[in-house]
Specification:
The complex is a heterodimer of chains A (about 110) and B (about 120). Chain A has about 110 residues and is mainly β. In chain A, the strands form two sheets. In chain A, strands 2, 4, 5, 6, 9, 10 and 11 form a seven-stranded mixed beta sheet that branches. Classes of the chains: A mainly beta (about 110), B mainly beta (about 120).
């Protein structure tokens, strides 16, 4: 019972590079979310998805792209990484729009 | 607009003390959910509780209790007889189900609790 997994767990990349963070859940939850965690800001929503092929922006979407061709996967791409995108990224899923969200272990991304 | 405020950035207590973490929220929606999550030093986010806006009953789970008061828009969390293992960052979050919200969680900034032996 894997639950929700993220890969890689740690990533160092250079400014301007494209980076993709992967998120996979085994519950077939409809809803999936990407958050970033920064000191002093708590967690902020980047993008979310209500179902396969349905995505929408959250609070801080600039510089990020998502896709959801399969229910179980929700990759997050930084098209051209910037130092301000250095953060810890959490993926989450939930069965309904009012259910508790299950979080992945997080990906610590450093942009140099 | 939705907002969650956790005014206490850091709290330090000695083991066995009781401690209350404050959470104040703002929303115009009548249907919403409030959550508490715990983030221990290992970094994962652990779900603690979900409360809907129509249920103002307080809840107790072991040493944890939650006080939900719509009149003051607060959802405070109390740990009784704190233990070192309670040391963590605690987040309060709001999910409002008005137009366009689709279950998004709005998090407070978090309160870092340090329990000293």
């Amino acid at each position: 019972d894997a639950g929700i997994t993220q890969s890689p767990r740690y990533k160092i990349t250079e400014t301007g590079r494209q980076v993709t963070l992967m998120c996979h859940q085994t519950w077939s939850h409809s809803y999936m979310f990407w958050y970033r965690q920064d000191l002093g800001h708590g967690l902020r929503l980047i993008y979310y998805s209500a179902a396969a092929d349905i995505t929408d922006k959250g609070e801080v979407p600039d510089g990020y792209v998502v896709s959801r061709s399969k229910t179980e996967n929700f990759p997050l791409t930084l098209e051209s990484a910037t130092r301000s995108q250095t953060s810890v990224y959490f993926c989450a899923s939930s069965e309904t729009d009012r259910g508790k969200q299950y979080f992945g272990p997080g990906t610590r991304l450093t942009v140099t | 607009a939705q907002k969650v405020t956790q005014a206490q950035t850091e709290i330090s207590v000695v083991e066995k003390e009781d401690v209350t973490l404050d959470c104040v929220y703002e929303t115009r929606d009548t249907t919403y959910y409030l959550f508490w999550y715990k983030q221990p030093p290992s970094g994962e986010l652990v779900f603690l509780i979900r409360r809907n806006s129509f249920d103002e009953q307080n809840e107790i789970s072991g040493r944890y209790s939650w006080n939900f008061q719509k009149s003051t828009s607060s959802f405070n969390f109390t740990i009784t007889a704190s233990q070192v293992v309670d040391s963590a960052v605690y987040f309060c979050a709001l999910s409002a189900l008005g137009s366009g919200n689709t279950g998004k969680l709005i998090f407070g900034q978090g309160t870092t609790l340090q329990v000293k032996p």
